[in-house]
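Amino acids appear as letters; backbone shape is given numerically. Here is one record.
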Amino acid sequence: MTTKTDFVPALRFAWATSLYDVVIQLFMRENSLRRKTVDVVRQTRPDRILEAGCGTGSLTVALSEALPDIEIVGLDIDPNILKMAGAKSKGKENVTLLQGNLLHMKAVAGLATGKFDTVVSSLVFHHLTTDQKLEAMANIVTVMTSDAKLILVDWGPPVGVIQCIGFWLVRLLDGFSVTRANRDGTVPSLLAQAGFEIEEVKPLHQTGLGTVWLYQGRRRPITAKI
């Protein structure tokens, strides 16, 4: 059973979860970020998508509408935020929502080994410590098909003075230790350690709170043992 000590809510405090969409839209220009993320996902020509850390379901629904014939599974640890995602995705027949921890994905029914050819995660990994980031990335590898794509959209080194100041505020709220790898630009090296070939790393979206980067990698193909 999930307890209050298992995770940090999206805005750090459970009481603020209901405000998440408003805050993200106000300070992050979320509609623009979501469109950019959907465009990147569509370019992978996916057959089955896992959204790792689906939050309130805004991206989940956008993917469902952009790719109506594709199965989309949204995974999140927070039962309260999943209720919000469930309300948004009601009636979307190609969407399934699951509660589970990225650090314990083997325990989640419905996440079969080698099932997903595309995994997308938006603004989730900066909540994890560096060791947890690496563990979650390695767990994601196990549910991917050989040669599958990972699209990770999250904070990276801030580009611009305003972004530097804004990201300091983000780090103050979310924690300096968990956001260190994002600030230092070491997320790609973690992906490589976890089993990904890095295909693209670039600033994707500027906000007053920092710079959101695109980290795209491909699962290293499984080679047969001779």
Summary: The first helix runs from residue 20 to 28. Strands lie at 48-52, 71-76, 95-99, 116-122, 144-155, 196-207, 210-219.
